[in-house]
């Protein structure tokens, strides 16, 4: 799939897609010096709504802070930019991709002290990340031979471009071996996350998910699912999980902005539970997608109307 639209927001202005160019000598091209977000806008009965848009932009600023990236835009300006680029493309639902990156400032690894990052926001249509069937049928995953980044090497709490080299190794190994996706262990051998999604394991009426210390990105969908599950009376435990927890689970699912809530039907070719989407995964999907068709009340205030 090619991610394209007519119009893009680039350094504060809307412009034709092709006009947002950067030089091949940009620092980010050579050293992976970017931080970014993935945000969805849903077409709801009350109009187009950003899902937890403010929190995604806050995470973008948190990622920038970790790397000391400076740019010229406030959170309010970026939220406005998100709204403007959705409207400019005539979209009612969209995937938004804000990115902050170091441009053409020379090849010294340490960028000049006055470096201001470039900032772009793309908006385009993006259906189910792992295919339309995946949400109902589930996906086949493997445990990756690649570990996730070790603590105090590259911070997985930052959504940084360079981290996705790890994700690329995980996902492309999985695809080569005939799986939809890979799940990485952390360097202590505990379950971490997928290439671009967090992971939940269900046993009985309890949901388990790796803690923030398992080299995961603190996913906003992960947080959403924790709150939706607790509201339905399930216990959610954030704790270290051994690999075999995947094999012995009643249900496994992955969460992410692009992935949404995807059931996992097998791990390393062992069926998870009955080998199909389980009832708790289905109930959480219903609660989650219900936010967007109005059948779930937005009690947490997660839906944000686009700014005018
Ligand atoms: N982990 C990784 C590595 C990711 O890229 C993503 C997608 N942003 C997630 C987890 C899920 O995060 P979120 O729910 O905030 O999209």
TrEMBL record:
The record's SUPFAM superfamilies line, in alphabetical order, gives: D-aminoacid aminotransferase-like PLP-dependent enzymes
- Alphabetized Gene3D superfamilies for the sequence: 3.30.470.10, D-amino Acid Aminotransferase, subunit A, domain 2 (3.20.10.10)
Q: Which keywords annotate this record? A: Amino-acid biosynthesis, Aminotransferase, Branched-chain amino acid biosynthesis, Pyridoxal phosphate, Transferase
Q: In which pathway does it act?
A: Amino-acid biosynthesis; L-leucine biosynthesis; L-leucine from 3-methyl-2-oxobutanoate: step 4/4; Amino-acid biosynthesis; L-valine biosynthesis; L-valine from pyruvate: step 4/4; Amino-acid biosynthesis; L-isoleucine biosynthesis; L-isoleucine from 2-oxobutanoate: step 4/4
| Keyword Disulfide bond tagged | no
TM ranges are none
Decide whether keyword NAD is in the record.
Answer: no
**Protein known as:** Branched-chain-amino-acid aminotransferase
The top of its lineage is: Bacteria, Pseudomonadati, Pseudomonadota, Gammaproteobacteria, Alteromonadales
- Please state the gene responsible for encoding this protein: ilvE
């Amino acid at each position: 799939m090619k991610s394209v639209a007519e119009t893009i927001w680039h350094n504060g202005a809307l412009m034709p897609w092709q006009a947002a160019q950067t030089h091949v000598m940009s620092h980010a091209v050579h050293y992976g010096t970017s931080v970014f977000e993935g945000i969805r806008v849903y077409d709801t009965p009350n109009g187009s709504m950003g899902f937890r848009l403010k929190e995604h932009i806050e995470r973008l600023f948190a990622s920038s802070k970790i790397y000391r990236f400076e740019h010229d835009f406030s959170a309010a300006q970026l939220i406005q930019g998100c709204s403007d680029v959705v409207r400019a493309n005539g979209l009612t639902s969209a995937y938004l991709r804000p990115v902050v990156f170091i441009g053409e400032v020379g090849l010294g690894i340490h960028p000049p002290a006055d470096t201001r990052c470039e900032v772009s926001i793309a908006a385009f249509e993006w259906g189910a990340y792992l295919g339309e069937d995946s949400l109902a049928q589930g996906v086949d995953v493997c445990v990756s031979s690649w570990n996730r980044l070790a603590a105090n090497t590259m911070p997985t709490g930052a959504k940084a471009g360079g981290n996705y080299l790890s994700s690329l190794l995980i996902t492309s190994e999985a695809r080569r071996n005939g799986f939809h996706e890979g799940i990485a262990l952390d360097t202590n051998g505990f379950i971490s996350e997928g290439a671009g999604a967090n992971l939940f394991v269900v046993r009985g009426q309890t949901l388990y998910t790796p803690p923030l210390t398992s080299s995961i990105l603190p996913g906003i969908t992960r947080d959403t699912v924790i709150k939706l599950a607790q509201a339905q009376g399930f216990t959610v435990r954030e704790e270290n999980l051994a690999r075999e927890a995947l094999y012995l689970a009643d249900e496994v699912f992955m969460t992410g902005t692009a992935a949404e809530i995807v059931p996992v039907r097998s791990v390393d070719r062992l069926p998870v539970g009955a080998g199909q989407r389980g009832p708790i995964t289905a109930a959480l999907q219903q609660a989650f997608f219900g936010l967007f068709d109005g059948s779930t009340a937005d009690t947490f205030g997660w839906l944000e109307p686009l700014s005018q």
